Amino acid sequence: MPNISKAAQVQTVITTFEMTPGTCQDLLEALTDAYADFISKQPGFVAAGLHVNDAQTRIANYSQWERREDFLAMLRTPEMRDRNRKINELCKSFEPVMYDVAETFG
């Protein structure tokens, strides 16, 4: 489970996927499979979550990595490059962005 904290020494990556309601479930399954079978087993992986909006036109992915380099190394693997090509076919766009936690509440 992700630990969202300013004190956490992790790299946060938030990826937004834009798709049609007709491809939402297929994309969600592809992302779930990618995390279950590959991403979660990569060095430096900490945790992740997938969120779907009510219109099924966007999926937000929140992931945490021990280091920025761990996330980048995972992206560069042949398996993830192949998976990303298939994921790209299911959505209009997707963009992973690295963030630092600025503040938390609650």
Automatic annotation (TrEMBL):
Tell me the Pfam families matching this sequence: ABM
Q: Which residues does the UniProt record annotate as the domain ABM? A: 11-98
**Organism field:** Falsiruegeria litorea R37
EC number per UniProt: 1.13.12.21
Q: What is this protein called?
A: Tetracenomycin-F1 monooxygenase
* Residues annotated as transmembrane: none
- GO terms for molecular function, please? monooxygenase activity
> Which terms are listed as keywords in the entry?
Monooxygenase, Oxidoreductase
Gene name of the record: tcmH
Q: What class of enzyme is it?
A: oxidoreductase
Q: Which InterPro entries match?
A: ABM_dom, Dimeric_a/b-barrel
